[in-house]
Amino acid sequence: MAGKSSGDYGHEMKRELLDSGICTSDELLECSIEEFSDLQVTTGVILPRAYQGFLQSMGRGAGDFFRGTDIFFQSLPITRDVVQKLIYQDEKARGFKLPDNVFVFASHQGYSFLYFVAEEDDDDPRVFVYTEDEGPPRQVAESFTQWFSQSVRDHAEE
Predict the structure, then answer these.
(1) Strands 28-29 and 112-117
(2) Cα–Cα dist 129/115, whole Å
(3) Which of 54, 97, 122, 142 has the most CB atoms within 10 Å of its CB?
(4) In 3D, which of 75, 66, 73, 79 has the Cα closest to residue 32?
């Protein structure tokens, strides 16, 4: 999917969410370019275009979508070190080391975390989940946009 801009990714995700009826355009609260640029500086991670698009289109909120999950800008950053410490304390996952360029983009109730590995040449990275007492992290989607689409479908079915 090389060649897409963050705006292209954001527009596609926004359209998918609005078409699902989960929220209205008035409920989509965008992040500014300055905000996600500051996030990159704070974390030292270059955010992939797909995730930048998410932030640009709904990074501060999307109605009831993701209610109960810390995923929006106000909750970031969730540090890699916090998750690594939980993994270290988890007997089922002990010994697993997160890569240095991990970006944790969501936390659910403080026991489950979603992340991707930010790499320069990957605009739409794979998504992984770590949940306490369930063993080492595992891949849950081939890409951030695939994960997002599945999240929209799951929420629409609720």
Answers:
(1) unpaired
(2) 6
(3) 54
(4) 73
Give Cα 36 to chain centroid, integer Å: 13
How many C-alpha atoms does 19 have within 13 Å on its Cβ side?
9
pLDDT at 119: 93
Which contacts (CB < 8 Å, 24+ apart) does range 71-75 have?
71/105, 71/106, 71/107, 71/114, 72/29, 73/31, 73/35, 73/36, 73/39, 75/107
Residue 94 pLDDT greater than 90, yes or no: no
DSSP state letters, 44-111: T----HHHHHHHHHHTTEETBTTTTEE-SGGG--B-HHHHHHHHHH-TTTTT----TTEEEEEEETTT
Residue 11 is encoded by which pair of tokens?
């527009």
Cα distance between residue 29 and residue 61, in whole Å: 5
Domain boundaries, the chain: 6-157
Alpha carbon distance 15, 91 (integer Å): 42
pLDDT band for 36, please (50, 70, 90 cuts): confident
Superfamily of domain 6-157: SMI1/KNR4-like (3.40.1580.10)
Q: Residue 87: how many CA atoms within 13 Å on its side-chain side?
A: 18
